[in-house]
Amino acid sequence: MPFIYFGGGSDTMIITLILFGVVILSMVVQSRVTGTFRKYSQVPDRSGLTGAEVARRILDENGLSDVNIEHSPGGFLSDHYDPRSRVLRLSREVYQGSNIAALGVAAHECGHAIQHGEHYGAFKLRQALAPTAGIGSQAGMLLFIVGLIMSWPPLTYAGIGLYALIVIFQLITLPVELNASSRALSILESGGYMDWEEAGGAKKVLSAAAMTYLMSALVGILSLLRLISLANNRR
Questions:
Q1: Which of 50, 113, 162, 169 could bond 136 through an S-S bridge, CB–CB 3.0 to 4.6 Å?
Q2: What is the DSSP code (8-state) at residue 193?
Q3: Which of these is catalytic: 53, 93, 109, 177?
Q4: Contact criterion met (CB below 8 Å) for 50 and 102
């Protein structure tokens, strides 16, 4: 959440109100992700395979036997693919789970590994922007606040520029995540890991997760507009 400042004109207040509404909606969406995952984690998959076993098979079938699979130390739904070390890290629920939710998430993360292996354009762009976006998240808001306090527009707009990198990163993340989910569902069905009914449950899990990325992008866009409005009103 960006720096909370309630000054500025009516346009700033309108953006702020919309932003708060979207933030609250984001919390609802995040809760839905957890609920959907838990619901389908109670539905066994007919293949009898665990998330880790399915992930290993998918990776091997796509020529990615060099990608290792590890437990994620991050806890519940901390699943991710690390392209730097070429490691797929699965949470305990996904790694050990033999259910629709676990297999869906495991296949999704494999989708990212496949994107990396195929040099998928959006994935490459996201990885290229990741370090810059990290700088933007740390320094952008600091520069904006200092510039606002000192009434120094160049510093304020430099902060906005850095913050914009985060928003660009979030927007690029959307097609990357959607593509990974599409790959996952196709692989699960074509590979015989799930029938169409089970794949429907996995799709609900992945669709709920995709909504969190959409909401993050909306929050980012509104936050950026709010910063621009605040800066303009202080000139």
A1: 162
A2: S
A3: 109
A4: yes
